[in-house]
Amino acid sequence: MGKRDVEKIAPHCDFIFVHETVVKQVLEVMPGGDELQKLAEFFRVFGDSTRIRILYALSQSELCVCDIASLLEMGQSAISHQLRILKQMRLVKFRRDGKSVLYSLTDSHIQTILAQGMEHIEEKGQGI
Length: 128
Hints:
Elements: H1 3-9, H2 20-29, H3 33-45, H4 49-60, E1 63-64, H5 65-72, H6 76-88, E2 92-97, E3 100-105, H7 108-124
């Protein structure tokens, strides 16, 4: 890959000059490594289409495992596995209603993240 090919992928400056004032301002507000690692793990959960489908379904209604399995046309054990991951990351919660266990999103932040993600891909087209 030649220099021109690299610049098409990731353009960069033709000379080295660090904008120290800007760098200092960013460093002052940049979260620490542990916080950024937790943020990366948080977003990693959104990297699985089954989990996204579950979250989207739960953004519409409180559902039990059977409901989600039916909606996604998947087995209950596969859904339970994904719900366990979502619960560990505090994205979903559950409550008992008689013999049923109903799942819902932990809070409105998750719904906002999904909505903003959808808005982004609709704005930018399918070029992801």
